[in-house]
Design a protein that fits this description.
- The structure is a homodimer of 142-residue chains.
- Chain A is α+β, with helices and mostly antiparallel strands.
- Chain A contains 6 helices and 5 strands; from the N terminus they run ααααββββαβα.
- In chain A, the strands form 2 sheets. In chain A, strands 4-3-5 form a 3-stranded mixed β-sheet.
- In chain A, β3 and β4 form a beta hairpin.
- The first copy, chain A, starts with a helix and ends with a helix.
- The interface between A and B is medium-sized, with 35 and 34 residues.
- β5 of chain A pairs antiparallel with β5 of chain B.
- Chain A binds a DNA duplex (25 and 25 nucleotides) through α2 and α4.
DNA sequence: ATGTATGCAAAACATTTGCACCTGG
DNA sequence: CCAGGTGCAAATGTTTTGCATACAT
């Protein structure tokens, strides 16, 4: 029950918030843009505005319920924050997103920050490539 | 003389292109947004449109003369491509950008891609933190 | 009831594009 | 001369905001 998550975050339990949380939780794609979520709501017959989707996602981000990533292409993607840190590898062809966590890289980040006299606050690491998924367009294309 | 760089890229040597290249080359800040470059042109008394700045930067990117990075905040920054790969660490307070190249991280990226069945094409790694620069606002603030 | 949330439309940005005019080779 | 480049304004795509209305507590 995520109702409690909302209350804990100091957010009223409203229908749009529940629905958006639910979509992020149950969609087969863990990483969705605001537009994706909005369309998904329309499909479900919900009458929720795109502006609300953005507002709710920002609040969720502030509350630590979701995290936002700036992938290439000028739009953000959101995912439920499981509390487990990870980075992303994205297929340039089919858009598939996979998660990874590499301890060696994590350690190096601290080392690098220290070398440059920075107190590390956050980082963004995204790998782009072509995946081996048989359904991936770049393989289908030949 | 960068005239030859332009010719090599199959681009006519025009005034806007020269000026933009020159700004990227001589500005003390190596990393600039399109807007930054545009303002810099205005300061120099140049009459070059923002649209042209974007067009030229895109062409330069295609020609490998500059590289584009998507920092947080929804805007891109451009820098002269020296041919030497590096990533970035950005100060959240003063906006200062430093470059680094960590061989261990580079190797791990290939390993990670392989583990996930991806052929690595590109990557974006940006660290965010607070720098020790005495001029940095977050230190001045107390 | 009452302070928050929401929907809608409009605004705000960053970036791109259409088109008539200019310019470099 | 003439393909390609540029300026300007208008179009785009994404995200934010103002405001009157609706809702959770």
């Amino acid at each position: 029950m995520e109702r409690s998550d909302l209350r804990k975050a100091g957010l009223k339990v409203t229908l749009p918030r529940m629905r958006i949380l639910s979509i992020l939780d149950t969609s087969e794609r863990r990483h969705m843009s605001a537009e994706d979520i909005y369309k998904s709501l329309l499909d479900t017959g919900e009458d929720i505005g795109l502006a609300t989707v953005y507002r709710v996602l920002s609040q969720f981000e502030g509350a630590g319920l979701v995290s936002r990533h700036n992938f290439e292409g000028g739009h953000s993607v959101f995912e439920l924050d499981t509390g487990v840190h990870h980075d992303h590898i994205v297929c340039n062809d089919c858009g598939r997103v996979e998660e990874f966590m590499n301890p060696i890289v994590e350690v190096q980040q601290e080392t690098i920050a220290k070398e440059h006299g920075f107190a590390l606050v956050a980082h963004s690491m995204i790998l782009y490539g072509r995946c081996e998924n048989p359904d991936c367009p770049h393989r289908a294309k030949k």
